[in-house]
Structure formats: structure tokens, C-alpha cells
Specification:
The chain has 638 residues and is of the alpha+beta class. The strands form four sheets. Strands 10-22-21-20-11-18-19 form a seven-stranded mixed sheet, sandwiched between helices. β14 and β15 form a beta hairpin. α4 runs antiparallel to α5.
Length: 638
């Protein structure tokens, strides 16, 4: 092995160790601080004053470095004193009057509480780290038949990339060659693989399971759906709730007040209460410790980050603390219909076959004809036949697509027509199967008729069906006292059927995007805090005007960008979970605030009446901070 290789082998493990230790540096520093405090206390008991002071100084420096650096930098940037500076002053003051042990313990516990806050931050960042690992760094670019590995960041819209079985798809795009099954759990949360063929859309971060495919990229690497998900989580952690902003604003004023009170405490008791100079200074130092709002400042941010982290883990991406806080105040929620309350894709609900025809054979031939069309109704019929009948499709002859009406074709000499009632004869269609067409239409079905050699052979009813989980989701929200509304561009008849099936309290039909906005404005006036749930481009204005906009994860990019909350798994019951999470968060924040203020008031009163010594003041104050953070960490659990 060469000298350079040996040097390299020595360096690489060290880098790995440093990277592993890095997240725990504050906790390690706090632990070392505790060790030096113990060493200082032992030295003091052995009457070795010099050694004890050296150990205590090491405890001060090692335990307090991170917080002191943070406090000094924040003071310099904001031109305002903060809690960290109060702790530095209190520790130095304790040492000045000879209370080295108490000052060191103050630094130690303050360091532990800081390490706990960092732990909370790291936990909330964990979701981003796990997401980032799913994003491939390289892609196999095909250019004039030549394959070469390139960084994903170099891909341009229109590039063609080869994705082999077992590889993650590096960019959003459309399949131009090949057929495969794709695991889309990273995007939708669905565990079942999805079959994908020519011209179907694929997403970055999903896994190609079976066949090699050639994908034409449709988005730049920084505009993919996967990249947007990561940005959503990152923005959630940087945006602060109203409560947090108030506390931060209040902190500066409070710190100045405490310092003024400490200065008064140093002199007034000496002149007014006949205290000694030593007693006045001692009580002033205790006041500096116990009046510091550490627990109050730590009451909100750890709780908010823990709640956002918990939500992200369950597929609920909240873009910031303000939106999570607002969820618990909701009085009404409006839902888009298509793709939100319903699946957004028509499904076969009923098939009626004329007695002169055999069901399996007729549907096989009908699906063979419909397979030549890209119309959603046609594809739904093909999907139904393939799922329910184990049969191969045929190749129809003389196929003609009659735009707006249906399709004509010939199979084995038979003349087929598939389409609307008027296409096959309205009178025959309306009287088919004892006039059942009118009843099916009244239930919100779209009807497709099949005619063979001028004989009406079948009627297929299709419908954009309500999601299986919709009723449960709406019922949960109603149980929480939230009024539910459906907004849709569909007809009054269809809207009424879907509204009944989904259990919403009220619906508004034939709504254009601007009319959805007007309805939301009226809901705001009546109920105050409201939410809008949607998935399409036409829902974006309504999502923007609502107090909380909630987008379905499979929705349009515009909806995802406009919304404040994204349901990654398109799972409506998650809304009730998000509201419950918000209520838990607000409850824990109130507990933290009340507890921290109560502790501060008790400690200040005890100090004034000379009932509190510095060691107990340190333990009471810093202990309350640690308890507040631990209480907030409960939100990490479901």
C-alpha cells in the first residue's frame, strides 16, 4: 500500500466517527461538564481549592460554550439580550460570590436542556433525511443510443433516461418505452405496486420493480413532486406559530425587566430591609437565575417541531406551526368533490345484459373495442373486464371513433356500437331493462350502451364513486363539531347523490372556481376559521383564501404549492388526525406555559422571603425547563 493510500485509510474512519458524534456533541459536552463538576466537588472536600476551581472552570467552559456562543451571536445580530445571556451572567455572578458548585450546576443543567432541544430538532429533521435518501443522485441518460451516467441535477426537460428493474426513478416523466410495475409508496403511501405502460406518468423517488423502462423527463430536478415534498417539510420547520412569535418578542422585553430587577435587588434591600451587601448580591444572583424565562421560551418550539415531525411520519405534511395551530380552531371544512370525496376516476357500478347474449363473451368484445380508446369511461370498462374476467382481448376491425357520441367497430362480422343513448337509439335505451336507465342516472351514474347488429345488448353504468374512507372521515369531523360542505362543478342531481353518500352537511353544485371562492367567503363570515380540501388546479384559489388549505398528495402541483397542509396518502381520515394532533399540541403548550410561569412566580417569591438558596433555585429553574421539553417530546408519539 502506498503512503498516500495509508494516509487516506487513516483519515476516512475519523471522518465517519466525527459525523456520528456530531449530532450528540451538546449532550457529550453536558456529560463532561457533569464529570468535571463531580471532580471539583471531590477536590473541594479534600481541601484542594486550586484543583476544585480548575475543574469548575472546565465545567463552565465545556458545558456552557455552545449556549454562550449562541447567546452572544444572537445578541450581536438582534442587538437584544436573551435568555442565554442571563444564564451566562448568573453563572459568572455565582462564581464571583464563591458559589462555584452552584454556578457549574447551573451551566450543567442548562447544557442538558439545550441538548434536549437539539434532540427535538434532530428528530424533526429525521423525516427530511429519510426522504433525501430516497432521491437518486445519478441517472442513466440515453443520447443518440449511447448510455452514460450523469448527475440528476444535469437532467433537462425532454431528456430520455433508462431505468432498470430495482432502481429508483430519478426524475418525474412519462414512459416512452417498456412496461413495468412501480412501487409509489414514497409518494402516495400505497403499498401495492402500480402497473405503468406507455405514456403513463412516473415520479422521482419511486421504485421500478419489474421491467426496464425509458422515461422522458417532464420536470427539472428541483421541480419534481418528490423535491416539493422535501421543501414542504423544510418550510414547516422554519415557519413559526403566532404563539412562538409572541414568546420571542416578549423574551427581549422580559430579559431587560429581569436585569433591571436584579440591579434593584442588589441595592434596595441593603438600604430598605437592612440586608448585608453579601445577602443582597446573593439574592440578586438567585433572582437572575430563577426569573430567567428558559422554561417559558422552551414551551412552544419543541412542542411545535415534535407535532410537525409526528404528522410527517404519518403522511400529514404541515407547512408551518401557524397552520398546525389553526387546525384546532376549525369550525367548518369545505371539500371539493372529484378526486377528494370521490376517487376522481369512474368505476363500473352495474352491468345489465340482454338475455340473448352471454355476459363474458359480450364484455370481452366490448372491452376489446373500448381498449382502442383513451376516454376515461372506455378505460374504466376495460379495467373492469380485465379484473373480473380472465380473458384475452381481441383486435377489432374497421374501428371508427365518432367524436362526442361513441365508437363503431366490427368483430367477426358483427357490427358494434358503444356510446350514448342517442348513439344507439334513445327510445330503445330508455326502455331497456324495463326503463332502469332513468333510475341509474338519478343515482349519479353515467350510462354507456352496447349495440350489436342493431340490437341493444347491454347497458353499463359507471360512476365516480365516493372513496371508501370518505364517510368515516366526514363522520369523525362532524363528531368534533365541525360543519362539512361539498363544493362541486357537477349538476345538482349528481351533487345531491354524492353529498348523501359522503354524509356532508351541505353542498353547492355547478360551482366555477370563482364561485367556490365566494362560497368560502360566506363560510368564513358565518363560522370564522375554515379549511378547504382539494386536489385540482381549479381548487387553488379556494385553498388560498381558506384559513387552512389542505391538498391531496396526488393533486396538481398548483394545489400542493398553494395548500398549507398536504395529505400524502390521499387519506381523508388524516384530517381528523391532524386536528387532534393540533389540539394535543395546543394543550401541551398551555400546560408548559402555565407550569413555567407558576414555577417562576413561586421561585421569585421564595427568594424574596429568603426561603430559597441558590442550589435549589438552580434545580427548580433548570429542572422546570427540562420537564417542559420532555413534556413537548410526548408529541413525537402517536
Amino acid at each position: 500500500m502506498s503512503a498516500d493510500a495509508k494516509r487516506l485509510s487513516k483519515v476516512i474512519p475519523k471522518v465517519g466517527i466525527i459525523e456520528k458524534i456530531k449530532p450528540h456533541v451538546e449532550l457529550i459536552a453536558a456529560g463532561l461538564s457533569g464529570v468535571f463538576i463531580a471532580a471539583g466537588w471531590i477536590s473541594d472536600k479534600m481541601n484542594d481549592q486550586v484543583a476544585s476551581i480548575i475543574f469548575y472552570l472546565l465545567a463552565f467552559v465545556i458545558g456552557g460554550f455552545a449556549k454562550a456562543k449562541e447567546g452572544i451571536e444572537a445578541t450581536y445580530e438582534n442587538k437584544q439580550l436573551n435568555v442565554e445571556m442571563l444564564m451566562i451572567f448568573a453563572a459568572i455572578g455565582s462564581a464571583i460570590i464563591g458559589y462555584w458548585t452552584e454556578g457549574a450546576i447551573l451551566i450543567f443543567i442548562f447544557a442538558v436542556s439545550g441538548a434536549l432541544e437539539t434532540y427535538t430538532m434532530n428528530k424533526s429533521h429525521k423525516e427530511i433525511s429519510s426522504l433525501m435518501k430516497l432521491q437518486p443522485e445519478e441517472a442513466l441518460l440515453i443520447n443518440n443510443g449511447v448510455e452514460r451516467r450523469v448527475p440528476v441535477s444535469e437532467l433537462k426537460v425532454g431528456d430520455q433516461i433508462l431505468v432498470k428493474p430495482g432502481e429508483r426513478i430519478p426524475s418525474d416523466g412519462v414512459i416512452k418505452k417498456g412496461h413495468t410495475n412501480i412501487d409509489e409508496a414514497a409518494i402516495t403511501g400505497e403499498s401495492m405496486p402500480v402497473s405503468k405502460g406507455l405514456e403513463t406518468e412516473v415520479f422521482a423517488g419511486t421504485v421500478n420493480l419489474t421491467g426496464a423502462i425509458t422515461v422522458q423527463t417532464t420536470k427539472a430536478s428541483n421541480e419534481t413532486l418528490f423535491h416539493k415534498i422535501i421543501e414542504l417539510v423544510q418550510s414547516a420547520q422554519s415557519e413559526k406559530s403566532p404563539s412562538q412569535l409572541f414568546i420571542e418578542k416578549f423574551e427581549g422585553t422580559y430579559v431587560k425587566t429581569v436585569l433591571a430587577a436584579v440591579l434593584l435587588m442588589m441595592f434596595l434591600p441593603y438600604f430598605l430591609l437592612d440586608w448585608t451587601w453579601n445577602e443582597s448580591f446573593y439574592r440578586a444572583m438567585i433572582l437572575l437565575v430563577v426569573a430567567s424565562p428558559c422554561a417559558l421560551v422552551a414551551s412552544i418550539m419543541p412542542a411545535t417541531l415534535s407535532a410537525i415531525s409526528n404528522g410527517a411520519k404519518r403522511g400529514i405534511l404541515v407547512k408551518g406551526g401557524v397552520h398546525l395551530e389553526n387546525l384546532s380552531h376549525l369550525k367548518a371544512i369545505a371539500f371539493d368533490k372529484t378526486g377528494t370525496l370521490t376517487k376522481g376516476k369512474p368505476e363500473v357500478t352495474e352491468i345489465i345484459i340482454h338475455e340473448d347474449f352471454e355476459e363474458a363473451e359480450l364484455l370481452r368484445k366490448a372491452a376489446s373495442i373500448e381498449n382502442q380508446s383513451n376516454h376515461p369511461l372506455a378505460q374504466s370498462i376495460v379495467k373492469y373486464v380485465k379484473a373480473n374476467f380472465n380473458t384475452d382481448l381481441l383486435q377489432p376491425e374497421n374501428l371508427e371513433d365518432v367524436s362526442g357520441w361513441g365508437v363503431k367497430a366490427e368483430i367477426n362480422g358483427e357490427q358494434w356500437k358503444i356510446g350514448k343513448a342517442d348513439f344507439v337509439g334513445r327510445e330503445a335505451a330508455l326502455t331497456f331493462a324495463d326503463g332502469k336507465a332513468a333510475h341509474l342516472a338519478s343515482q349519479g351514474n353515467t350510462l354507456v350502451f352496447v349495440q350489436v347488429n342493431n340490437c341493444l345488448a347491454a347497458m353499463i353504468a359507471l360512476k365516480d364513486v365516493v372513496r371508501q374512507e370518505t364517510k368515516m372521515a366526514i363522520d369523525h369531523l362532524k363528531n368534533q363539531g365541525i360543519f362539512t360542505v361539498m363544493l362541486t362543478g357537477d349538476s345538482e342531481k349528481t351533487a345531491n347523490v354524492i353529498a348523501e353518500e359522503s354524509h356532508v352537511d351541505q353542498f353547492f353544485a355547478e360551482c366555477l372556481p370563482e364561485e367556490k371562492v365566494e362560497q368560502l367567503k360566506k363560510l368564513k363570515e358565518k363560522y370564522g376559521t375554515i379549511a378547504m380540501v382539494g386536489d385540482g388546479i381549479n381548487d387553488a384559489p379556494a385553498l388560498a383564501i381558506a384559513n387552512v388549505g389542505i391538498a391531496m398528495g396526488e393533486g396538481s402541483d398548483v394545489a400542493l404549492e398553494t395548500a398549507d397542509v398536504v395529505l400524502m396518502k390521499n387519506d381523508l381520515p388524516r384530517i381528523a388526525e391532524a386536528i387532534h394532533l393540533s389540539q394535543r399540541m395546543n394543550k401541551i403548550i398551555k400546560q408548559n406555559v402555565i407550569f413555567s410561569i407558576t414555577v417562576i412566580m413561586i421561585l421569585i417569591s421564595s427568594n424574596f422571603f429568603q426561603l430559597l438558596d441558590l442550589p435549589f433555585g438552580v434545580i427548580g429553574h433548570e429542572g422546570s425547563t427540562i420537564l417542559v421539553i420532555l413534556n413537548s417530546l410526548r408529541l413525537l408519539k402517536n
